[in-house]
Specification:
The complex is a heterodimer of chains A (675) and B (325).
Chain A (H helix, E strand, L loop, with lengths): L8 H28 L2 H18 L15 H14 L4 H44 L6 H19 L3 H31 L1 H16 L6 H8 L3 H25 L3 H9 L4 H12 L1 H21 L8 H10 L3 H30 L1 H5 L5 H21 L13 H15 L9 H22 L2 H15 L2 H16 L3 H31 L1 H16 L2 H12 L3 H26 L2 H9 L4 H12 L1 H21 L7 H12 L2 H22 L3 H7 L1
Chain B lengths: L1 H27 L15 E6 L3 H18 L3 E6 L2 H10 L4 E5 L4 H10 L3 E18 H6 L6 H6 L13 E4 L9 H7 L4 E4 L4 H13 L5 E6 L9 E4 L21 E9 H6 L1 H9 L4 H12 L5 H11 L1 H5 L6
Parallel strand pairs in B: 1-2, 1-3, 5-6, 5-7
Antiparallel strand pairs in B: 3-9, 4-7, 4-8, 4-9
Helix pairs in contact in B: 2-11, 2-12, 11-12
Classes of the chains: A mainly alpha (675), B alpha/beta (325).
Chain lengths: 675, 325
């Protein structure tokens, strides 16, 4: 694809000249004609006009007091009740505390187990599990996976992160097991019963757009700070993908296979266990993979509510802005992610590979090897008295990283001729981009914004989406958080605009040039797994605290997903269409504008939707570095244990998430084409 | 067919495991649950660590000495802010708060007077003071800015992209005790609080502005290691009188001088033996705390290294804290 345009450059140029003259005139009326022919678009333009005129006419953007409801008083009461009754009320004694004690002791025993295995035992176990998952033996696949595991664990130790990493792995193991079980059960309900599907589907959909940050607080008040709250929030966050994909797998089962098993006289149960679940296993494995990744990102965020391990290392370095330390822990997280991802992905690969399947009948053998070798390694480690990672095998990268960051800060902060420097940009961006956006949103009358949101949602979806969007905004206003939410919204829009500009540009470039794609792929993988907190710290050095720093970290966080989806969208286009356009003499730019981008439209819309969700989740976390608005209210609520403050802000964030998701969701028709 | 059978077995195993977990839950589910980690005994001590660096300095030094000199097997430092720390002390999940800024009068009443689950552990030896501060270079150029009324007249000097047409006031980190919001409102000051989000972000911003000699006004406090590096001048607020900040919405007065307090879980204070004794004796000066805080925040030492360095240099101070044998 990349080589093609150079073949006939002369023809290209000549053709463009002759074409552009004859083509552009019909294009312009075409746009207006299309607009006029699309009632939804007309409606949208009308609504926008109304909003702009109303804002300019000096309408007040303040939500009327009469339309608010008081959520704070009941929440404060609930807060007090929780604190008073947390260790006396039967609901806690006979139910909730059991959950938290069981979680605590499960995590403790896993961590203790890992400690007793010692670093040699754990590494050997991890490597051999990867090896067995890869099909054991001396196949390349198995050895490659094992090598990845060895590298990951060795590096974690070298970075001096062994002990916190084991705490994180301990919490992860328990969370993943429970989240997967919960996910399978919920997935079976929604996969096997239509009513279950109708009830659970919207729940899963909503869960996927919720910034996890917004619902930490209630769990802290119920389960107290510590492992149990971290466990519960992580399971809630990570179970939906498993459930969703299990359900998808069950529903997508080949009808003929089911028919066959039925005609052979299988009972419902037999059919479920011998045909439907096995047929769904590929999807379920994908779900497990996603669940693991989400668990990993959540156990880091949960350090805010007392989860220990690597997350706590990162959280603590946030409080002294130690970029090097946070990056070290962040890399350890990425390494764990790589190990888990490759190990689970390789099982999926093996399911696809018929050659591997035939060899699987003796599959207990590799596992016996794993157990025996782990026991052996543990014995060796214990005999040598080496259970903890030796201190002198540690290489610290945090000092060099910090000196680089200091250098960047002092050299690029300000005073560069013409360009100004990052601090100057930061205040410029706040002043000329975020502030006008915020002021415009806050000056627009609330009813006009409701109208625009409703029409937007209607234009991309259906009535239901419109109602949801208007309701979401209504709840925000009703709670009296209108102004603060508009502040957050302006940051989200600013970050989204930058993300999409950069993301589409890089994505298209990567989609067209193979070399670029190969170069950025590992970078994207890494950026996507680095915990959110890690992004925040260097941004403070670069842009000083504040909204620009928050927006910058949100852009970095959301960019990989947008680039990736755009790239895929461009690459999925039927080569025949491109070939045809090229043979008709389209130039590179014409190909892009008239063939690739229109055909990749579903992917681009999906990228927008993903971008919105990711940007929002990061913008609110940036409350910790001066982003203000709803984010800092959640942080305050968490820090002060103030349910009324934190929970209302959390609900407002959830409402913003639902609103943004609905107005950016690729419509049903687009989705179908996209698939 | 073998393939499905195997998967079948595997699913069976998963179901069995699930049943096992449920069974475990059911087993433990018969009786009332344990309500918290039992405090007491000197095997394990849990210290709460609020998010400011000074408090981390207390905790790291206490931990190092408890483990090395007092013979406690494991000292756990739990990162938690004041309000949550008080709850944790109440239910025994943590044993001690080493530095309390008197910001939670309701919890003090509830836990100390009513439930008697927390007891006082004495002075930390450090006196805390919160206030509004401006850099000395600005105060020298504008002496009238040293009172809040004078500062208000100069509000436009403090305008930034974050504060719009008002002056920017660098606010406290989310968990810190502050009445700035109400002070600004009740005195109708022309300032807008910028929520700095956490202490380090606030410090970074102050350092960046200080270096460029820009004007700024900030929520600030002593003890604070950065005070050794930069020169700040306090802005005079109306004098603090007992009770003038209750209810907080009506606050018009400035901040008090607070002798920082230690608090212990009541059971731990009674049965904690040498560890509890040591923590009650723990007392050092503002300078000493600042020294350790600076090792951590500025020199980027790990907490352990910072504590070790200080302990090596200050034997005479900490030996007085050890319980008499």
């Amino acid at each position: 694809m990349s080589a093609a345009p150079t073949e006939t450059p002369v023809l290209d140029k000549r053709d463009r000249i002759t074409h552009s003259g004859s083509e552009s005139p019909p294009a312009a009326p075409g746009f207006w004609a299309r607009l006029a022919g699309n009632p939804k678009a007309v409606l949208l333009v009308a609504a926008l006009l109304v909003a702009v005129i109303a804002a300019l006419a000096g309408g007040s953007g303040i939500w009327p007091k009469d339309l608010t409801f008081d959520l704070r008083t009941p929440l404060t009461d609930l807060n007090e009740w929780l604190v008073d009754n947390r260790d006396t009320h039967p609901l806690f004694l006979y139910f909730l505390l059991h959950i938290s004690n069981t979680a605590q002791s499960a995590v403790d025993s896993v961590v203790l187990g890992l400690e007793n295995l010692g670093f040699i035992g754990v590494t050997v176990a991890a490597v051999l599990v990867a090896w067995a998952a890869g099909g054991a033996g001396l196949q390349r696949r198995a050895l490659r996976t094992a090598g990845t595991a060895l590298g990951a664990f060795g590096l974690i130790g070298l970075l001096g992160m062994w002990e916190p990493a084991m705490e994180t792995v301990g919490l992860m193991v328990v969370c993943v097991v429970v989240a997967a079980l919960v996910g399978v059960v919920l997935g079976m309900i929604s996969g096997l019963s239509d009513r279950g599907e109708r009830i659970l589907r919207p729940v899963f959909d909503t869960m996927q757009v919720l910034p996890a940050f917004s619902y930490l607080l209630p769990f802290v008040l119920i389960f107290d700070v510590g492992t149990p709250s971290a466990f519960v929030t992580t399971v809630i966050y990570a179970a939906p993908p498993m459930a969703r994909l299990t359900s998808l797998g069950l529903r997508g089962a080949d009808a003929a296979a089911l028919e066959a098993s039925q005609s052979l006289g299988a009972t419902y149960r037999q059919q479920l266990f011998t045909a439907r679940l096995p047929l769904a296993r590929k999807q379920m494995l994908l779900g497990l993979n996603q669940t693991i990744m989400m668990c990993l990102s959540m156990v880091v965020l949960a350090s805010m509510i007392g989860a220990g391990g690597l997350g706590e290392e990162i959280y603590r370095s946030l409080s002294i802005l130690d970029t090097g330390q946070s990056l070290t822990a962040g890399i350890a997280i990425v390494l764990i992610a790589i190990w888990l991802d490759r190990t689970t992905a390789v099982v999926g690969e093996r399911l696809d590979d018929p050659a591997a399947a035939t060899r699987r009948n003796r599959s207990w053998l590799p596992w016996a090897v794993v157990a025996a070798a782990t026991a052996g390694a543990t014995a060796v480690g214990t005999a040598l008295g080496k259970l903890e990672w030796p201190d002198n095998w540690v290489v610290s990268i945090s000092e060099p990283v910090n000196s680089v960051v200091d250098w960047i800060e002092s050299e690029l902060g300000s005073g560069i001729p013409v360009l100004g420097g990052t601090l100057t940009w930061a205040s410029g961006f706040a002043e000329y981009v975020i502030n006008p956006l915020r002021d415009a949103l806050q000056a627009t009358p609330w009813w006009a914004l409701l109208l625009v949101a409703g029409v937007l949602a209607y234009a991309v979806g259906r009535w239901k989406a419109a109602v949801t969007a208007v309701l979401a905004l209504g709840v925000i206003g009703g709670m009296g958080l209108w102004t603060r939410s508009m502040d957050t919204l302006s940051q989200v829009i600013a970050a989204l605009a930058v993300t999409l500009l950069l993301g589409f540009a890089i994505g298209v470039l990567a989609g067209r040039v193979d070399r670029v794609e190969r170069a950025i792929r590992p970078l994207l993988d890494t950026l996507q797994t680095i915990p959110q907190f890690v992004y925040l710290i260097p941004m403070v050095a670069l842009f000083s605290g504040g909204r620009t720093a928050g927006v910058a970290s949100a852009v970095l966080y959301a960019l990989p997903a947008v680039v990736r989806i755009t790239n895929q969208g461009i690459r999925q286009i039927d080569p025949a269409a491109l070939e045809a356009s090229r043979s008709l003499g389209a130039s590179t730019g014409q190909q892009l504008r008239q063939v690739q981008l229109p055909l990749a439209r579903p992917s681009l819309l999906l990228a927008v939707n993903q971008g919105v969700v990711l940007v929002l989740s990061m913008v609110v976390i940036a409350g910790m570095i001066g982003g203000g608005a709803l984010g800092v209210d959640v942080v305050k609520g968490l820090a002060k244990g103030d349910l009324a403050l934190g929970m209302t802000a959390g609900i407002a964030i959830v409402c913003l998430g639902v609103l943004l998701d609905r107005i950016s969701q690729p419509g049903a028709d687009v989705k179908k084409r996209g698939l | 067919m073998k393939r499905t059978k195997l998967i079948n077995n595997r699913i069976g195993a998963v179901v069995a495991a699930g049943a096992g977990v449920l069974g475990l839950l059911a087993l433990t589910g018969c009786g009332a649950a344990e309500t918290g980690a039992s405090a007491g005994g000197s095997d394990k001590v849990t210290i709460t660590v609020p998010s400011w660096v000074g408090a981390q300095a207390n905790a790291e030094v206490a931990k190092a000495l408890l483990e090395k000199e007092v013979g406690v097997k494991k000292v756990e430092l739990k990162v938690m802010d004041e309000p949550i720390g008080w709850d944790a002390l109440n239910n025994g999940k943590a044993d001690v708060i080493l530095e309390d800024w008197d910001g939670l009068p309701e919890k003090q009443k509830l836990y100390i007077d009513q439930k008697k689950s927390i007891v006082k552990g004495g002075d930390l030896g450090v006196t805390g003071h919160i206030g509004w501060f401006i850099p000395k270079y600005y105060a020298d150029a504008h002496p009238e800015a040293k009172t809040f009324e004078g500062l208000n007249k100069l509000a436009k000097d403090f305008k930034t992209s974050e504060s719009g047409d008002k002056g920017e006031f660098l606010g406290a980190a989310p968990s810190y005790t502050t009445y700035d919001e109400y002070l600004i409102k009740n005195h109708k000051l022309n300032f807008k609080i910028k929520e700095t989000g956490n202490e380090a972000a606030q410090i970074k911003e102050i350092q960046q502005k200080y270096e460029k000699k820009q004007p700024f006004v900030t929520y600030w406090w002593e003890p604070q290691w950065l005070n050794n590096d930069i020169d700040l001048v306090e802005v005079k607020l109306p004098k603090f009188k007992e009770g003038c900040n209750e209810p907080k919405e009506k606050t018009e007065c400035g901040y008090a001088n607070t002798p920082l307090q230690k608090y212990l879980n009541a059971d731990f204070a009674k049965d904690g033996g040498d560890a509890a004794e040591f923590l009650k004796n723990f007392k050092w000066s503002t300078e000493q705390q600042n020294e350790v805080a600076k090792y951590i925040a500025k020199d980027k030492m790990s907490g352990e290294e910072a504590a070790k360095k200080w302990i090596e240099d200050n034997k005479s101070t900490w030996q007085a804290w050890l319980p008499k044998k």
